Amino acid sequence: MVPPPAHDQVFPASARTRDRPSRLTDIALALLLVAADAVIIVTGAVLLVAVGMGTAQDPHSSATARSRDVPFLMWLAVWGVPVVAAVESVMHARLRMPVTAVVQGLFTLACTFLAVAWTRMLLS
What is the C-alpha separation between 61 and 90, in angstroms, rounded? Predict the structure, then answer.
């Protein structure tokens, strides 16, 4: 009987190759993330409308320039979610989970769109 090559003894097979998760695991995680992402997007959109309606000017009032300081934590919340979603999308792609990576990529696009809308509202 021939002994295994010395290379296999130093580096076990599980450490040399990174097996991708099963397709079922990928799809199950993607479905779970779709539900969570939908809740986040709907909440962000509802808050955008509610805050925007609450800070809207009266159409009959004079248009005066107003300046508001927006706290740093607000900017962190507005732009932090798309950044975290992008990092998560890249992480799932590196883990070789294509369905989940696509779902998170679409979530990143939706969050970026909402962040731009929030930024326009906060700066107006």
Answer: 48
Query: Tell me: the pLDDT tens digits for 96-105?
Result: 999 999 999 9
- Nearest-CA neighbor of 113 among 89, 71, 85? 85
Instruction: Using the Cα atoms of residue 21, residue 22, residue 25 and residue 28 in order, give the sign of their dihedral.
Output: positive
Among candidates 14, 21, 38, 15, which has minimal Cα distance to 103? 38
71 CB neighbour count, 10 Å cutoff: 9
Report the phi/psi class of residue 96: left, alpha or beta, with left for phi > 0 and alpha for psi in -120 to 50. left
* Residue 18 DSSP class: -
Instruction: Please give the pLDDT value at position 14.
Output: 54
Contact 108, 85 (CB under 8 A): yes
CB 78 within 8 A of CB 118: yes
Its pTM stands at 0.71
At residue 25's C-alpha, the angle toward residues 110 and 88, to 5°, is 35
